[in-house]
Design goal:
eight-stranded mixed β-sheet; Rossmann fold; EC 7.4.2.9; membrane; alpha/beta; ABC-type dipeptide transporter; P-loop_NTPase
């Protein structure tokens, strides 16, 4: 039985599961000791839900998004199952996934300056993304739809911007182009990988508001990958916390912020500046995420954990839910949940 079976958490808008990830594992390198980047991940995403994936750099957040999109780089080996409306995406093969990407599942990549082709006009790139799924419509029709998508993401003067190159646009405008490409075919799921990185605060707020509006209009699910807990608090229905390639906590957004249970989550939330905090300094988690090829046995967080005991060194913790929708992989939930 999977040690991290997902426990359904309440979403604000509907309960239809649209994406179901079971026992997902991504590894690199052959032999008896491959580097395991994602280890036994199980998650469910509901229609019109915003699920936020959080964790430090190197914890596997972006690899999870690539696995969903069928873009794990060679020679990566992916096992388990990713079901979209009952169909296992891992069994589709390259041709089948081309039909899914953009059409059913869209993605906004982390760096729009590097994900957009610098040699092609941005409008042409949107048209090409649509042409993969529509080989019947004329160029004029596709151009009109591309301009409509640009207008939908609030790009002023969309007809003129259609013919510009990425370097002629600001960072916020490039991000809007990336979102327009991702939603042009009206996908059911949008994966947004760090959509506000390197943007100023005002533009960040505009992008987040845009994503909310698109979600309401299109009734689509959003998988929001971020390390910014402020963005999580503002956007998420449910939150999955990752550490060293594993899921360690899963809860509704309110439950996670009101009652964090895993020591790692406590450390993440303790690093947020708060006006009411009495302690003179922010909390810090000592150490760093271990390399994929050197993962410790037992609980992968135990070398950095203040609650570490001998059990943690040798055994991987099973989830504890306390009969609610809050999933935590820790032997010491009562200790970890005590007020500091």
């Amino acid at each position: 039985m999977n040690a991290l079976n997902p426990i359904p958490a309440p979403a604000r808008r509907g309960n239809e599961v649209i994406l179901d990830i079971s026992n997902l594992r991504v590894s690199f390198g052959g032999g008896d000791d491959p580097a395991v980047i994602l280890d036994d991940i199980s998650l469910s995403v509901r229609r019109a839900e915003t699920l936020s994936i959080v964790g430090e750099s190197g914890c596997g957040k972006s690899m999870l998004s690539l696995a969903i999109m069928g873009l794990v780089p060679s020679p990566g080996v992916t096992t388990g199952a990713i079901h979209y409306e009952g169909q296992n995406l891992l069994a589709l093969g390259p041709a089948g996934m081309r039909g899914m990407r953009g059409g059913k599942i869209g993605m906004v990549f982390q760096e729009p300056m590097t994900s957009l082709n610098p040699l092609l006009r941005v409008g042409f790139q949107i048209v090409e993304a649509m042409r993969v799924h529509d080989r019947v419509s004329s160029n004029r029709t596709l151009k009109a739809r591309a301009i409509a998508a640009m207008e939908q993401v609030r790009i002023p003067g969309a007809e003129q911007r259609f013919n510009e190159f990425p370097h002629q646009l600001s960072g916020g405008m490039r991000q809007r182009i990336a979102i327009a490409m991702a939603i042009a075919c009206e996908p059911d799921i949008l994966i947004a990988d760090e959509p506000t990185t390197a943007l100023d605060v005002t533009v960040q707020a505009e992008i987040l508001q845009l994503l909310r509006e698109l979600q309401r209009k299109n009734h689509m699910a959003i998988i929001l990958i971020t390390h910014d807990l402020g963005v999580v608090a503002e956007m998420a229905d449910n939150v999955a916390v990752m550490y060293a390639g594993q899921l360690i906590e899963y809860a509704s957004c309110r439950a996670l912020f009101d009652d964090p249970r895993h020591p790692y989550t406590l450390g993440l939330l303790g690093s947020i500046p708060r006006m009411e905090r009495e302690e003179p300094r922010l909390l810090a988690i000592e150490g760093a995420v271990p390399p994929a090829a050197q993962m410790p046995a037992g609980c992968r967080f135990h070398p950095r954990c203040v609650f570490m005991e001998q059990d943690c060194v040798h055994r991987r913790p099973l989830p504890a839910s306390n009969q609610d929708a809050h999933l935590t992989a820790c032997f010491h939930i009562p200790l970890a949940g005590e007020p500091s």
